[in-house]
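Data deposition worksheet. Section B asks for the primary sequence of the deposited chain exactly as it was used as input, without tags or linkers unless they were present during the calculation. Section C holds the resulting structure in token form. Section D is free text for depositor observations; keep each observation to a single sentence. Incomplete worksheets are returned to the depositor.
Section A, Depositor: J.P.
Section B:
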Amino acid sequence: MKKRLMWLWNLRGKHGQHDLRLFVAAFLAGFATLMLSTPSLAQDAAPKPPATRTQQELSVDSLSVVKVRSKAVSDARSSRSLGQQREGTGVVIDSSGLVMTIGYLIVEAENVELSTADGKVFPATVVGYDNVTGMGLLKALTPLPVKPVDFGESASIANRDLVLIVGFDGVAPAYVVSKRPFVGYWEYLLDEAIYTAPVTVNWQGAALLSREGKLLGIGSLVVGDSIGSSSNIPGNMFVPIDVLKPVLGDFIANGKSTTKPRPWIGINTQEVQGNLIVTRVSPEGPADDAGLKSGDVIVGFGGQPVSGQADFYIRLWKSGEAGVEIALDVLKGNRVENYKVKSIDRDKYFRPKPVF
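Section C:
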């Protein structure tokens, strides 16, 4: 494994050689723990060829990232959970100034600015936010002195592949430790997400790069079960770049996919033995209007029992497009009650940027 990391050793970032070596040392310590706790990984982790790009080509200043700072509109509905001021990484994807990031950094944004490693600041505008993939897209209003990244094929990477997590504030080596569905508590589901370890704190909107420097995914979350539900090994979850490719053209032209919007009812849930405990109801959202409360338990959908969050989401989205009425069986105290929830397009719930 030491040989496989030599191509990383002399990378230079804004924090210098010493800090990068600390990154590598932390990686080695974390991955040693990972190997000891998962023997099958240790047995199967065969050496791979070194990266085809040179160390100079992979210096942090050439890794196609910028810092993203955004400020949400004053009455943003997302401010309660995400805050009004947000900060993370953006990945430059073309020479015209398009920048990809994770969507929650820019949802309901009023002002957005990008900054490069030399401290220069560039105003930007929001192209769009896609709540299906979770991706966000920005466009710099003046040219960016940053080389765009090349897209890779996220479907082609496998467990134990060495990758780089590149955020504006640093570079961290990691391994892909699993590829599996991700189910979010906020009406969000990925058929296949990319999980890496060891964990890094520099993950919001970060670029996940192959050893050849190609973009594989965008950083979304820190997770406590990077290998699977039976593990307690922390890591990071990335949205694969392949999920955005089919809709990227529409996204650039229209600010979102032109497919019919999914129904959204505005709840956060926790799955317990197949049932869904409502942990939060979005104020003035469809579920709130229908009378659902935190602590309610969703036990049925359309008269049929639910079997977890993923099952609930799939049935919700298959029930029709946004606007369809959703029939829920809800346990309140010791009694099951029937609710009719008028779904909406989630984009309609967010506050628009003021136009003067």
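Section D:
DSSP finds eight helices and 18 strands in the chain.
Confidence is low (pLDDT under 50) at residues 1-60.
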